[in-house]
Fold this protein.
Amino acid sequence: MKIAVTYSSKDGLLSEYKKRLGKTAPDADIPADFFAEGDSPATIQAIIDTFMEGGHQVMGVEADDRLLQTLEAERPDFVFNLAEGLWGDFRESYVPLVCERLGLPYSGSDPLTLAICLNKARTKEILGYHLIPTPGFRIFSPHHPVNLDGFEFPAIVKPASEGSSKGIFNDSVVYSPAEARRRIEEKIQQYRQPVLLERFLTGQEFTVALWGNGEEVEVLPIIAMDYSQLPVNSEPIYSYEAKWIWDTPEKPLEIFQCPADISAELKENIEELVRDTYRVLQVRDWCRIDVRLDEQEIPHVLELNPLPGILPDPKDNSCFPKAARTAGYGYQDMLLKVLGIAAKRNGLSL
Ligand SMILES: Nc1ncnc2c1ncn2[C@@H]1O[C@H](COP(=O)(O)OP(=O)(O)O)[C@@H](O)[C@H]1O
Ligand SMILES: [Mg+2]
């Protein structure tokens, strides 16, 4: 097959940023995490190499302004999409929309599911409708007064439409209305988007990878987070600091336990929760879902990642590859499996 691997590289995002703003360098005051979601050259190369070794003709395509033109000219048989995009609340839908426009089959969820899952408030509203547990929340938008009446603390403040722990720092956990108000105003200002105030769950946290479609959806081994590894006095959350600063390949934090050492009953409850979540959000092919227990040990959904991060180096602690590895799939096997799942859904044989 002729496969186009679409991605948003860190360099690509930076040049898009400069082009859009007509600048030669990023502003000094852009948040440190602005490009956190860009694909690394190692990830892009590993995927291209894997599919080439699998006997395919492969081209890498940056998901920038030229995407439509490039895909139209090349007309690949299949698009394997990783691109998170840079601008706006619909950035993850860009590649799927272009593929829909051109009638090209592509991997992963459709533009609507990607847009909804990138909006944590909308996601939670859908989960609520289907009676799937998710922590209670309020949403605050620019220009609307912050009403905190009756909200219980502790709580966590997070931008509505970010991922990769962007905007979630150690100080995002708040203990009083005054602190919440300050943090909400600060985050709205900084991220220029609505912000969620969400009940803080103090129980154990998990992240769960799933793949497949319909009757063939499989839950991969559950990953448990162990926050006792974080510096003393830090909040028990997978913050930006925990993900990108305190955990380095040279000095890895042993945060993840896979498979999670939990009772058969809890495992079953979590598996049922994530399967239901995958179904009601109409996720396709693959996804990673974050889950946390409340004080009664009831698992709640925090959010979905239908374009999961897949760093190739095991030392990078990337969760989807870690769960796949525990299930017996090396990095390349994992990629070929996802490709196979997505191709099958599209009626293509590899
Ligand atoms: N309601 C919550 N209760 C407890 N911890 C939370 C809650 N929401 C987020 N967190 C913590 O913050 C981390 C990042 O939040 P998440 O919603 O998963 O955003 P991201 O898209 O950045 O991964 C989670 O992995 C978890 O540790
Ligand atoms: Mg998360």
Notes: Residues 205 and 292 are 4 Å apart (CA to CA). The chain has three domains: 2-106, 136-199, 205-345.
